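Appendix B. Extra example for self-study. Work through it before the problem class; the solution is given directly after the inputs so you can check yourself.
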Amino acid sequence: MIHLQLFWEFFKTGLFGVGGGLATIPFIYAISDSFGWISHAQIADMIAVAESTPGPIGINVATYTGFHVAGILGSALATLGFVLPSIVIISVLSRFMKKFKESDAVTSVFAGLRPAATGLIAAAAFSVIKLGLFNPGHQGIVDILKWKELILFVVLFVLIRGFKWHPVLYIAVAGVIGVVCNFQVH
Amino acid sequence: MIVRRYLELFWSFFKIGAFTFGGGYTMLPLIQKEIVNKRKWATEEEVIDVFALSQVAPGAIAVNFSVYTGHSMLGIPGALAAVFGMVLPSFLVISIIAAFLANFADLPAVQHAFAGIRVAVGALILDALIRLLRGVFNKPIPLVICIIAFLASVIFRTSPIPLVLAAGLAGFFLLRKRKAS
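Solution. Structure tokens for the complete assembly:
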């Protein structure tokens, strides 16, 4: 049963996740909220792994979630569910690709879809940042913020904006700093 | 030898899957080298067309491209061979890492490392988000759609699927370009 659900949830993610890559993440949060297979902290870890390994982020996240929920069979089914919509849609469309691409109806629908996908990614970013920088259940600005983490966040963000090095580098540095500075685990 | 052509499709996309980090446009140089220059399975224009199509079709660009190339060469079985090659490196690498992390996740050092890594993930996503928002901020209707999707997701925890469907409908009715007469 859980295998069927995995396949179906990632089929929907592949079908509705327009814009590739990070567009998958809001769906993973929805899956986490309705099934409890994975926690929000695990999603953040998963994004780090997906960005540090080869291959498309969507595939990596599907494989990881599937493995976490139901082992190797789970990762196979989640990945299959995720790519199946692409296989069907692109096989059908490749015949009249030009017509489809230039159709007014199609371009207008996707002109509406893309900002929604961006809004959903913003919501996912909000969840990840909240998790990394705030203490749940504390009150007052001094207690609620994780100050060491906040400083690291600002430094990393400035470096990312300025230098555009490969994500794996920022992730590795942050991991080392997390160990050295004893970042708190919740 | 038809079997050999399937194997070639599989192997070419296996290499692309194994050597690109992040998917999407980062794959373009490797696709040009392997599929256009070496194998001559697609022209430069077809590659650009598939990338453009992937902007207006669901799914990962990498997967869409492998389906398109495989399908145009050997039909559905070709599409399957290409996709299988494309996803196999991810599948193997991630399964190994997931199995490894499942065993070591309880170690304090690993937990502190991931507490730091989550901070980096937040900064990386914020950076990607700022780039995406540039395409939204100068147009009023997309901006409203973006804000509604954000608020509905954060405050009401609305599932993404109804939001995506509603946004598609809104685009169809509100963002349709009038034909210049």
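Self-check: Chain A touches chain B through 106 residues (CB under 8 Å). If your reasoning did not lead you there, revisit section 3.
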